[in-house]
Amino acid sequence: MNEIENMNKTSIEAINNVLLHLFETPIFSVNDIVSWVGYTERGAYKLIDKMLTAKQIVPYTMDSAERGQKWISTEYQTQLIADAGKTNPDTINLVTTSYDHDGTSTKTNNLGMREMQARAYEKRTSKKLLIKAPPASGKSRALMFIALDKLYHQGVKKVVIAVPERAIGASFGDTELTAYGFFADWHIDDRNNLCTEDGLDDCSKVGAFVRFMNGDDQILLCTHATLRFAFEEIPVEKFNNCVLAIDEFHHASIDQNSRLGQLLHDVMAGSNVQIIAMTGSYFRGDTVPILTPEDEDEFDKVTYTYYEQLNGYTYLKTLGIGYNFYNGNYLDRGALDKILDTRKKTIVHIPNVNSRESTQIGKNQEVDTIYDIIGEWIKTDPETKVDYLRTTDGRIVKVANLVNDEPEHRLPLVKYLSEVARNDLAGIDIIIALGMAKEGFDWPYCEHALTVGYRSSLTEIVQIIGRCTRDSYNKTHAQFTNLIAQPNGTNDEVVIAVNSMLKAITVSLLMEQVLAPSFTFTPRPREPREARPGEIFVKGMKQAKSEKVRRILESDLEDLTASALQNPHIQKAAASNAPGEHLKFLESQIIREHYPGLTEEEVETTRQYLAANIASKTAKPVKDKDGNIKFLRMANHFIKIEDLDINLIDSINPFYNAFEVMSKKLNTDLFRQVRDYIRGSQINMTVDEALKVVPKIKQFVQTYSKNPSINSNDENEKYLAMVQAFLTKEHAKYNTEKVRRAEETTIKEEV
Questions:
Q1: Cα(138)–Cα(3) distance, integer angstroms
Q2: How many whole angstroms from its chain centre is CA 406?
Q3: Which among 523, 617, 519 is positioned nearest to 561, based on CA atoms?
Q4: How far apart (Å, rounded) are the C-alpha atoms in residues 421 and 415?
Q5: Helix, strand, or coil here: 30?
Q6: Are 116 and 138 a contacting pair, CB within 8 Å?
Q7: 515/241 Cα distance (integer angstroms)
Q8: Looking only at Cα atoms, what is the longest distance across the chain?
Q9: Highest-confidence range of 283-287, 426-430, 657-661, 740-744, by mean pLDDT?
Q10: Which positions ≥6 away from 707 have C-beta within 8 Å?
């Protein structure tokens, strides 16, 4: 360091003094310099400038920390980065993606907007807007920009913002926007912020909501629950000329048990309310859609993908999604302790007490056992409720127990995490959670999201993964690990395990494309042209001619893909390598359910794009020496690009690779049981559904002068034979029942 050599002796001694202290405290403030070196505050700032120039330290948070307030030594940062990409050798990463980290998603324009926010702001005049964007992309601030424009320039009188949990409301606190180029700042009066810790009960909050709607105030913040209760007291027409913004929109659905979904439908039908819906889930939902197709058609959509977000980060380079298997109890030796690295900033999600993975000893006892795995408890901070533990190698780690939901524990801890730990690398090391820390929780330093047990909801898993994909200088790799129980070999256990494994494979398939899309399959054009980057032509694939189909493909294809892959019939059919014809049948069914107004031609066109999108998630390009894609590896096949057609795509089993990888962790006998169960579930349909295949069976018989054979090497013939056998069996059952009813009638008449 030439810069150090040119310094005077006093400065060098002062720097060495600071660096000595940094071995114990890698992050320091200006006041620390004053204390350690004896400098004035002005002198401390000058010393910091010298250390920055000599690259002895680096800024702690590049974009948010005030100058001189928080710093970290380069040696410590180097060590953090070196440790960040290490993955436990027992973890099977079904997805590993790399990113360019070019910083585009965090840069701001002349109005202070990041890339996603600017994209949403372009749609600011929309009356109904759905924003789909990953965690940490800036959805809260995007809403501020749009809402202020509506209040100042579009004649809107009021803005109501609803969040799922009170803690998430902090994201919508007062924000200075004019300093970065916007025309107004964001401010909510204290009396209209119903997410604060003011002790108001539900009744009082509803009263505050009613007062707001009848008064002149412009902005109110509340929880989803408060909105539901208030809606019962407020006439629908009161929402005229208002904006209703729903954060974490995936909590709503058209399910009869979703009061929020019904509320949204009613207020849209009964007023001219403007809706801004936001979700951090890339997918619309799990099995129940958020809105009816009719309601959803009214929404403009802004989609900012996970890939765009992650690829545009400054620091994060790679993301892994993996699985670990354990036998018995997850707290037993060789399970959780095997993959919990206390050197990494980690969120541990323990299983629900009613789940199969729960130990049944109670949630608090489970946390105590995890503490024993981490090390020795030392103390609990009486103010923050942070626990201090000493690891076996002598390090002190700070642990936040969010499983304890007693208010006197939870409230100060959440406050500490929101106000201190989110801005201080040394603030917390491990968070243990049950229901919290899945969404709306900002801890940018998190490196590892460790989840015990399968989650039934894809949306929930996406949210959990989002906890560790914030961009931060302390990490180049983020890891999601699912700790999964192996079945014990009984039939019930095998069934549960199979369903869980298929869900895991689904997540892996979907996440791989969402987090790092490589290419898309499109119909071969009538007029020859060069393929666009990431585009691969498919022979025989239908062109999207109708506006309905084009809209589905433009905004809903990933949602439709998620719904299809989460369908248990498709999962089992794919995993058992059922005939392609059966998968086509199931895919068409799902499309008809989602879009009942489509013609059969439109259904088939949409289905082909759906099948191609599913197949693309497993396809790996094989390039020549010039970087051109010549082959695709799909399942266990290598396919020439020129030979790719829609029939070949329809025959690809999307679960093949992932299922083979996961099977390596099961013993031979258990894997055989799993296979047998799956294969026994190939054909799952109603009689009405099977009857729709009869014309194809008749056509086969007419063409080949024989019935289709179940032993055929042709998968479609085998499928037709299976359907024929199913109908034969059902016909026999019908005749038996018919005879039984006739006999009962005869007996009654004789009596």
A1: 39
A2: 28
A3: 617
A4: 9
A5: helix
A6: yes
A7: 38
A8: 119
A9: 426-430
A10: 701, 721, 724
Distance CA 734, CA 235 (A): 54
Distant-in-sequence, close-in-space partners of 659: CB < 8 Å, separation ≥ 6: 501, 505, 575
Q: With contact defined as beta carbons under 8 Å apart, do 246 and 162 qualify?
A: yes
Report H helices in 282-382: 293-296, 306-311, 336-339, 363-374
Question: Cα 491 to chain center, whole Å?
Answer: 32
Length, in residues, of the chain: 751
* CA neighbor of 167 nearest in space, from 431, 405, 432, 439: 439
| Adjacency order of strands within the sheet including 448-452 | 92-98, 318-326, 477-485, 448-452, 346-349, 430-433, 396-401, 387-391, 375-380
Is the Cα torsion angle 728, 731, 733, 736 positive or negative in sign? negative
Please measure the distance between the N-terminal and C-terminal CA atoms of the chain and give it in whole angstroms. 110
**How does DSSP classify residue 539?**
B
Q: In the beta sheet, which residues pair with residue 378?
A: none
Amino acid at 58: V
Cα–Cα dist 340/391, whole Å: 12
In sequence order, which residues have a C-beta less than 8 Å from that of residue 288 and are 6 or more positions away? 253, 254, 255, 258
- What type of residue sits at position 518? S
Residue 740: per-residue pLDDT: 66
- Classify strands 375-380 and 387-391 as parallel, antiparallel or unpaired: antiparallel
Strands 128-132 and 300-303, sheet pairing = parallel
Listing DSSP states for 130-178 in one string gives EEE--TTS-HHHHHHHHHHHHHHHS---EEEEEESSGGGGGGGS-B--G
Residues 418-450: pLDDT tens digits?
Answer: 888 888 888 999 999 986 554 445 788 999 999
